[in-house]
Design a protein that fits this description.
The protein has 77 residues and is mainly α. The chain is built from 4 helices and no strands. It comes from Plakobranchus ocellatus.
């Protein structure tokens, strides 16, 4: 997924038969040293998870699966 984003930014088609190493080298030349996109996504997900677990909203309830038990309706079996 990350290479697809880099190729799109650089305007490189898969038909050009450019290796991933070449794409990585071009990205470093274009924008300089950087943190991988997947690392950034993981960091942001963890930051959002921490934010929602400190709250008391619906997102926390859904993520933690702490729904109050109640009367179940419907047919059994």
């Amino acid at each position: 997924m990350e290479m697809r984003c880099y190729r799109r930014l650089l305007g490189i088609s898969y038909k050009d038969h450019t290796t991933n190493e070449e794409v990585s080298r071009r990205i470093v030349n274009a924008i300089g040293p950087h943190v991988d996109l997947l690392t950034i996504v993981r960091q942001r997900k963890l930051k959002w998870y921490g934010h929602t677990t400190r709250s008391s909203g619906l997102a926390k309830t859904i993520m933690q699966g702490t729904v109050n038990e109640g009367r179940r309706r419907g047919r059994l079996g």
